[in-house]
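Hi P.,

Sorry for the delay on this. The queue was packed all week, but I finally got your sequence through. Input first:
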Amino acid sequence: MATPGILYIIATPIGNLSDITLRALDTIKQVQLLLAEDTRITKKLLDHHGIRVRLESLHDFNESAKTGSLLRDLFDGTDIGLVCDAGTPLVCDPGFRLVSCAQENGIAVRPVPGPCALITALTVSGLPTDRFVFEGFLPKKVSERREFLRSLRYEARTMIFYEAPQRLQRSIQDCIGAFGRRRNAAVLRELTKVHEQHLTGSLEQIEQVLGNAAQGVKGECVLVISGNASPADEESLDKAARLLTDLQERISHRDAVEVVARHTGIGRNQLYSLGLGLRQRLKKQS
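Then the structure:
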């Protein structure tokens, strides 16, 4: 019986093709199959480094269908590498189903770490880095985006989002509506590429710069926003406590936190702690 292969999760450059680790290059050379979100993009990286390897696509539209056959290949002893178009796989990219199924079936999954856009942006944003939360891409629909941002207005941690360039200015305006004009933020565009750009300051200042740009924003963008330094006021917390108490009699604590977060805008972490305190007091009273 063949020794099962290993599934390698390989980080690749987010822009500059030289930003790849020696271990990542060695791993790509040794695997028998390399899975890529877009094979055309990955082939440019392979050609740049003179690497020839069997290359297949794995994306949102075929991952479910291909996972079974890929697991069989791994069980037969095939070492497989997974990359995305840029950065670390599975961070807003395909691969979760494959990794999850591999873990469940006892297949070894090994990380080959490297570039990640959200961490790269955070480190140069000038905003607090000790505690942060990554929220992925902002919703495309205006109403959903505004509601989502309002739910984060009491979030104390630095917030990181990905955003498409064509929606960036409208999203900044929605952030102003949720967090206020003076909230500090940073927009990091085209990181590690020739036209890399950093916009820092208040949300209002960033909006003005984007509005005065002669050409529209191009390239991938990371939006970093400072957390709320002021916790929710006592009146808001009292209201949230009443809602949590009522909801927890009918639904789970986790679901209650989600509902109250949407209605009050108070951060989920703060509500979770508040709800646990309420449950403990109720146990003592009973």
